């Protein structure tokens, strides 16, 4: 990238020539000597490095907490990067004070990251809606000392304190939120000047230098875990610079998802919520809020992990992928995209530009299940998506996916074929399980033994039907049939 | 030169009078009747501001001019002989300033994947990492063993051979003495009979009405503190070394470095202003500390050497695994008769896999026999980990006790009551725990819920011991401007000792904790405890209080002539010194200070032995866990934990509660998630990160209700005991008992992963599906 990266770091302007693939965390700690942001794992798992990134939107600047250890510096061009140092004022902010008051900081190593996440929590209209949001907001922050109870209490206390008289309404715009949080001393006054200052930074066009090998980066949440510091020295191509890869739209009864859509944006979008009514619930089980703010739908698919959550869901929704290389464009069904472990039908220079699925018919039912040990920040042992079109108890059509049971995210074609035109009855579901068992090929690994995964396939299949047809079938029936 | 004082001691408000003899110069110990202002209250951390603003500097944040970054080259082999090392390419690589071998003369024997071979210091971390890639090491591979059971067999590869064990300078290898009684990979057993010879135990078991015999297994857990191990080392000159260390023992680090570098201790300074958690793994200087100091000397520049997350999992400590064959007997009257424990475990290339503490120290059992061995394997060394041996021991013992209770058709809580009848504290704890957990409402039948989601409630006891240590010296300097500065070399590992020192001084001097400027974490200051055995608070606070008391006396001596009363009549409160009988005779603390001769005075308080010599006192605790088990997927969710712990005389309830919460969540994490997994074929840890090595997060937190049980003993001037460790001891056991109550299936292996829970369920149903 030519001409350097320009962004706002707390209250100051930054123009730097460091490589765009440099980790924001390294830039902060090493180049800027801002050591309040900590390094605990460098893999997105601990949250010691959480920062806020502010981006211009119509209503002002929208802030999201993200892990700076997976954040390429180039992504920050034209944005506002806020670290713990940028929140400090003369007195403690209500967030900081609440953590002190509840005893939420013991050794203190995790504390700056927690302050950032809880501040992000207040800035975010979705998570701050209810008290549970506070637990979710801390989903990406590990603390080995406190046991979290005091931290959750701290979050609730602040929310109570500043949101007491229902100060947050649903229509609270970004601008008004920031203004109010400045008044409440959660944010320093300089935040007011940020939108205008950001508008002054000219956008950056990125030309792909086709001569040297390059690395496409979407959210970077897979790439940085795999390649780490090495990316700083590679020729990274930031897909976010490319316009038109982010929007979600409806067209001719089909939902189009820009592959750069983050997990979080996906789960919150009205179009998606209409198509997949429980998407928010599923989303909570994916990664953590801090990672969901970066991880993209496209990255999840191209990463080709057999256990990718979004991929499993999109498989059940009969998604198609649109690729482009130069002027050439082609469409591939997601079902036939994967060819082997981490292998897929895509040329090196092709970019995923659209993910499309048909709007589910009125009669169709969708469910997604994921079994993992922890409640958050845990890659699934087995996950599964399903879409069923039924007439009462008669199944017209089934689309079923399973992750973690084969080298690829698996579409269970035979099982789907079998279930067509069957009635929702335990015996058919158990027979479907027998077929599913023949389609899968799980291996034993740290996530669980192959026998256990086989068992989970059965249980998830049952769970799908009992959840989607509670009036027709109950879990107990399977015990009896068993 | 001593005086007698009367104290009210006992459990909560149930007090009795005792008389103790204390030195003339010492304050009357705080007891159950003292109404104190700060002590026993909820005081938030005096360093909370530093921590929440990110201004608190940890070792990894120390930045010195010209500082180099060091990285280790670690063995990829689980067992090998290093034949040769070629560093020539790396030496001339950009930025490289020094390369040093851990063992100067080859051949070097390597015993686990991750063992340190050499370290490189370069101008940037990236350069150091790049240089490592240019180093060529020739290994001659040797057979290895990673599984504890395989390592015990006669035909197993041997981890340690005699020749190597003689070497003593490597602080983390077992010395010659430790390996006495070693046979193959098995060191031990250590045998501890109580109440007669082993045959007596067998006879008593044979004669019991009911016996439970089972084998329990626990996994290897890594400490996974949020800040990794590491130091910054700087030589002032050839004879003076300063080390910023992420440690639990400023003095233990200093002493080890003094030994390695053959320097007087006073020429080494260890600084730990803040550190990001230790849990037992951060005591010595470590190879990283020694190598950082050597590199710094060689390169003539300060060196930072911080481990990364992977190294943290591999090389710097873990809780050993265990296999415990336990046999416990009882009669139908509900009295335990005998207990036999045969246990072994691996601390990798380290030692210390004993687990018998709970078995020997909780219940009133006439005959106890225990046999424990360490088994060497080709894995990173174990280290002390929050109540070493006890969560493991409790997991086995407390399940066996539970099984026995069910067998005898006695309520598990009542069964425990009967068998700890002489322990007053436990009796009170059971009552409180039962009330809080609503134990009476619990269905006595296991697996009573219909439907796939089943709920259960289980109980488990914990035990720990009262440690304190002596010889610590706390200074208090009172300046003529009235400011008060207590100092001691002790480090704050998150337990909040900084705040507690401020509280003790404030209480004694009638000031506010925020008025007190505490300086700690510096080995140049007075000798302080290492934070192990939960002894920090019990160790240092009596010395602090003694110093503060004498500082107050000194202030009274200054104030007395000014107020025209005798010093005995004076009191200090709310920043004033005044006559008890006539409050108009009063001066502010500052006014009195301004009249001191000179500019300041300093008083040193020392930690002596307790006034009352209790024999090793056990610290009791009990926890009740409530779980929800999804019998379809095997997933266990902990819904609620009720914890009742003996907290001695609580100093700060806020820090105490946090400690208990933290101990419980670590216990849940141990029970359900954490497991260091070594690949049997390569000896490589397959989950050396925080993605697959799971520790509990905010969404895994159950409702935790802790009852802090005040127990005044009057044993020292502050009456403090430790709570850092006890809270983590019984959690996994209580959860296991709750899982049994929910499902009727015993999970005798940790962690209780969904597949293990499902197999336990299958086993219970006689092997269906
Ligand atoms: C802490 C943590 C927790 C996680 N938890 C989960 C979880 O619960 N469930 C889950 O499914 N995943 C999880 N992940 C994995 C990861 O977040 C997802 O796979 C994510 O969707 C990857 O998206 P990304 O944009 O970050 O991908 P990137 O890392 O940017 O890219 C991944 C790959 O896709 C390629 N790529 C990306 N976009 C395009 C495109 N438009 N065209 C062509 N190639 C492209 C890149 O070149 C790269 O090879 C987790 C990751 C972390 C770090
Ligand atoms: S350092 Fe752990 S999440 Fe970034
Ligand atoms: S306070 Fe130590 S890790 Fe959170």
Please describe the structure with a list of short key phrases separated by commas or semicolons.
heterodimer, A: 482 residues, 5-stranded antiparallel sheet, 18 helices, 32% helix, 20% strand, B: 769 residues, alpha+beta, Aldehyde Oxidoreductase, domain 4, 7-stranded mixed sheet, 6-stranded mixed sheet, globular, binds flavin-adenine dinucleotide
**Ligands bound here?**
flavin-adenine dinucleotide, FE2/S2 (inorganic) cluster
Total helices of chain A: the number is: 18
Tell me what portion of residues of chain A adopts beta-strand conformation.
15-25%
Main beta-sheet strand count, sense and barrel state of chain A: 5 strands, mixed
Helix content of chain A: 25-40%
* DSSP helical segment count of chain B: 19
Determine the structural class of chain A based on helices, strands and strand pairing.
alpha+beta
In the CATH hierarchy, what is the superfamily of the domain at 388-466 and 614-765 in chain B? Aldehyde oxidase/xanthine dehydrogenase, molybdopterin binding domain
User: Alpha-carbon distance between the termini of chain A?
Assistant: 62 Å
How many whole angstroms does the radius of gyration of chain A measure?
A: 23 Å
Proportion of beta-strand residues of chain B: 25-35%
Average pLDDT over all residues of chain A: 92
Tell me the overall shape of chain B.
Answer: globular
Distance between the termini of chain B: 78 Å
Biggest sheet descriptor of chain B: 7 strands, mixed
**Low-confidence segments of chain B, ≥5 residues, pLDDT <50?**
163-179
Tally of strands of chain A: 18
* Unreliable residue runs of chain A: none
Strand order of the largest sheet of chain B: 5-7-3-16-13-14-15
